[in-house]
Amino acid sequence: MFERFTKDARAVVTGAVEQAERGGAPAVDAEHMLLALLDKEGGRASFALAALGGGQWLESVRDALGEARRRGGLSQAEADALAGLGIDVGEIVARVEEVHGVGAMSGDRVGPGTDAGAGKVSRSRHRPFGRDAKDVLVRALRVATSRRDRHIGDEHILLALTTRPGVPAEVLADHGVTYEAVVRVLYGGGEAKAG
């Protein structure tokens, strides 16, 4: 499937691996795909993000992703649902971090295959794509196919992220980046194409 990816889409995928490495994550996940998209300039996805006001909220998106990571990957909607059951996720996070340190629930902690005490995964270790990252790539293929595009571009990855339940889609939607908004920017009424 990777041979069908445009240069921009390939850059996002390799950027996601780099994001996972920088964060010390054991696998590449959908969040890393989103972070790589936010870092990528010059592609159709960056055009859509900029048109939707991206320059004004990129740091807010990064902060929201960091907060979700601190909550152990729970979306705000999931944390709110648990609050409705009387479970205070913020209190749980605070207690865990009190005992184990800040970021203890993020999954980026010291363990097998990490540099001792550094909390980072060794750079030589291969990072597999997690189930959610694989799902984003499959969804990107489906989006491209449904739009009758021959290649999978970074815009298809962005569209896939907006359709998949979870933290990246929630954070994007909170900033006005929905599937419909991205389609409107990129394809207009269905005829015009950006870039």
From TrEMBL:
UniProt keyword annotation of Repeat present: yes
Cross-referenced Gene3D superfamilies: Clp, N-terminal domain
Pfam families: Clp_N
Every Clp R domain range: 2-195
Keywords of this entry: Repeat
InterPro entries: Clp_N_dom_sf, Clp_R_N
Keyword Repeat (UniProt): yes
Span list, region Disordered: 104-126
TM helices/strands, residue ranges: none
Protein name from the UniProt record: Peptidase
Source organism of the structure: Streptomyces chartreusis
Taxonomic placement: Bacteria, Bacillati, Actinomycetota, Actinomycetes, Kitasatosporales
